[in-house]
Structures are given as structure tokens and as C-alpha cells.
Specification:
The chain is mostly helical. Helix content is 59%, strand content 2%. The protein is built from 15 helices and two strands. It has a two-stranded antiparallel sheet with strand order 1-2. Helix 4 runs parallel beside helix 6, helix 9 packs antiparallel against helix 10 and helix 12 packs parallel to helix 14. It is elongated and about 70 Å long.
């Protein structure tokens, strides 16, 4: 009989049994905090997976919530590279707390590896329906402004997302990348009858940043221009001179 068996289960089993305490929103907070500390002292991936669940709930008072989450963050960091796989799995499967997962990955991995994980999750999300758009928006914001050839192809499908916030986040990511395959989808989005005004404005901004011409859509685009945007003779969206 091993040491963990003597105390009531193997290490991974003990970690999983602590999950209800870690995600307990009400009652004595010391019960939850003790479970968090116990998990932090365990050195196997299942403990990281359970600790990550603490980010999916909010407790009162908010100062306690913030302190506990920062404590969990530091405990997970202490696992080093052993935490990466559980965090990646959490990011892929959970609709919540994506920003915490990305923050942790940023502490544990070089940026190109974090981008690779983001691209992988975005590709997965583009092929699966999700009710809550927040996770997509968080991931899209994370890759915005990054120079990496893998980003644009992963972001492009989100121009057709059902949520306007996701479309806008995708446009902000795509505009500076000047990704030619995005030109026509952007123009179709801009000129579609059902496209909301704020999405149209974000599309004009992305077209301006990308430098793409509006060939094939000029007449429709001219009717949708808002200040400060206009079209130059070549058909590019430019800002009107003051």
C-alpha cells in the first residue's frame, strides 16, 4: 500500500476530491482556502486542473475573491512547465476564465508558443458552436497586434460569427495584418444587409488599415462610408483630409 492509498486515494484522486471545496462559493471561506493550499502543495497535473476551476467562480467580498485568485495564480506558476498541459486543456474546454489561462501561459512560455496555443484554440472554436462569445473575444484580443503568419488564417472565420463583438474583435486583429484572403470577406461583411452599423464602422477601419481596394463593391461601399472615411481614386478606404 502506497502512502497516498493510506490517506484515502492516489494523488490525482485526492486532487479531484478537493474540487467541490475549491469551487464552493458560500460558507466558511477557510474551507476553500485550505483546499487551495493543499492543491498547491501537490505536484501532479490534476492539481493544476482543479486549481484552475477557482477562476470560474466569483465570491464575496470581491477583495477576497481577487486575493484568492492571485494566490491560485502564483501557486499554478509554481508548477512550472508541468502546468502548461493542464492550462492548455482548460483553455480548450472551459468557456470561462480564458484571460487567466492566457496570463498564466504568458508567464510560463515564450510568446510564439502562446500564439500557437491561441491559434489552436481559435481553430477549434471556429468549427464549434459556443453560446458565450467572451472566450473568442479574449483570444482574438490576445493575438491582436502580434506579427505571426499563423494568426490571420485562424482569425478569418470569425468574420462570420453570430456575435457582433466577435466580428469586431476579428476585424481589429485582421486589419493591421494586411491578409489578402480577408479582403473579400471584409467587403461582403461591410455590404451585407444584416450587418450592424458598429460592425460596418469597424470594417471600414480594418479596410483602411489593410490598404485593400474595394473593387467589385465600390458602389455599395460608397453608400456606407462614414466620417472620416472616403475612397480615393484607386478605390482604397482612406481618411478624409482635415
Amino acid at each position: 500500500m502506497g502512502l497516498f492509498d493510506f490517506f484515502g486515494g492516489s494523488g490525482p484522486e485526492k486532487a479531484l476530491k478537493l474540487k467541490p471545496k475549491v469551487t464552493q462559493k458560500y460558507g466558511d471561506p477557510t474551507t476553500r482556502q485550505k483546499a487551495i493550499q493543499q492543491l498547491g502543495e501537490m505536484k501532479f497535473p490534476e492539481a493544476v486542473g482543479v486549481l484552475l476551476m477557482r477562476f470560474t467562480i466569483t465570491v464575496e467580498p470581491l477583495t477576497t475573491d481577487a486575493d484568492e485568485k492571485e494566490h491560485v495564480f502564483e501557486l499554478i506558476k509554481g508548477f512550472g512547465k508541468d502546468a502548461v498541459a493542464p492550462i492548455q486543456d482548460f483553455l480548450r474546454k472551459s468557456d470561462q476564465a480564458a484571460s487567466w489561462a492566457l496570463r498564466l501561459l504568458g508567464e510560463l512560455l515564450p510568446e510564439p508558443e502562446v500564439i500557437a496555443i491561441c491559434v489552436d484554440v481559435l481553430t477549434h472554436l471556429s468549427n464549434h458552436y459556443t453560446r458565450d462569445p467572451e472566450k473568442k473575444v479574449v483570444l482574438l484580443h490576445h493575438v491582436t497586434g502580434k506579427e505571426d503568419a499563423r494568426i490571420a488564417p485562424a482569425v478569418l472565420p470569425f468574420l462570420e460569427d453570430m456575435a457582433d463583438d466577435v466580428k469586431i474583435a476579428a476585424l481589429k486583429a485582421l486589419g493591421p495584418l494586411k491578409y489578402e484572403p480577408a479582403r473579400e470577406p471584409m467587403l461582403k461583411l461591410l455590404t451585407a444587409d444584416e450587418t450592424a452599423r458598429r460592425v460596418q464602422t469597424a470594417t471600414l477601419t480594418a479596410l483602411h488599415e489593410s490598404g485593400f481596394g474595394v473593387q467589385g463593391f465600390r458602389e455599395k461601399v460608397e453608400g456606407l462610408l462614414v466620417e472620416p472615411y472616403t475612397l480615393d481614386k484607386a478605390g482604397a478606404v482612406v481618411k478624409r483630409q482635415a
